Amino acid sequence: MLEARGAVRRLKEYHPPLGGRVGLRLDFNENTVGCSPRVLECLRRLEFDQLARYPERESVEGRVAAHLGVAPAGLLLTNGVDEAIHLICETYLEPGDEVLIVVPTFSMYEIYAGATGAQVITIPAGADFAYPTQEVLAHISPQTRLVAIANPNNPTGAVVPKSDLLHILRAATEAAVLVDEAYFDFYGESLLAEVASFTNLFVARTFSKAYGLAGLRIGVLVGDAAQMAMVRRVGSPYNVNAVGLACLPEALGDQDYVRQYVAEVRQGRELLEQELRSLTLRFWPSQANFVLVRIGERHTAFVDAMRERGILVRDRSRDPGCDGCVRISVGSNAQTRQLIPALREAARLVAAAGVSA
Fold this sequence. Notes:
Layout: H1 6-9, E1 24-25, H2 37-45, H3 48-52, H4 58-68, E2 75-78, H5 80-92, E3 98-103, H6 108-115, E4 119-124, H7 133-139, E5 144-150, H8 162-171, E6 176-180, H9 184-187, E7 201-206, E8 219-223, H10 225-233, H11 242-253, H12 255-278, E9 282-284, E10 290-294, H13 299-308, E11 311-312, E12 314-315, E13 325-329, H14 333-352
Parallel strand pairs: 1-11, 3-4, 3-5, 5-6, 6-7
Antiparallel strand pairs: 2-8, 7-8, 9-10, 10-13, 12-13
């Protein structure tokens, strides 16, 4: 009987709860107002032959490279950051290799790495979800072939200081160090400029969050040109679809739109954190477009109460160290004004039940 590889059979399944998402979507860290009007106009102008031929990404990769200030030879457009992670794992990991991740973090690091047969070593985050740099350094060995770091991290919103990232890069010279900057736009600090100095550094970005292109699945992976030539060998030449390639230059060209949305998210994040303080709910300061909140035992009731008020939030209580926690994404100013009253009512529901948050 045909069977999948043992490494695949042992994988944890990941099924994001995407069904029935009716209401204000503050559950998946998406852009909550949509993409630039220039992108929508581009979609209206698409000709039939653009969909009938295979997509050509080289010219668009050149545009993205110029936007990021990197060499085109060191950049690859990907089918979201998910594919970037997958390609790194396929390029550098073999059965028996070791992968280091600090948990809680993005689930796909463990899934893609585990599928190769590599051993995934999970290291718990420190107090208040601080990145345990010394523990990571202590785990680096000749078998370490990948260190995956989300910066800012999901679901905590915590960040790793640049000096710590550089320390890890210098210590793990035989490993690919992937710095996933999916939430860079809301944070503002990047390791992209260091790619020229480290052949083992890879930086991933996405256009799903601030740019509002999650449905088009466009990400980007940047690294040393010689290493990226190896990564390209395991990828499809047609991995990014023609619609995404047509729209991405328009999205990049409307930086005013992106800046305005990011500014509103940052304002909303501050307002949300202020409100959580006033409600005496435990939360962790975030550098992303979401905030992780500890609700307590009635976290499911809280999520349900928010849904009843037309707002979707994400229960993260199954993540390591996140028992009783809920993640709330942040959107526009108007959406934050809609969020705050619903949050107060749901919090009162929890308090009325006599359960400490």
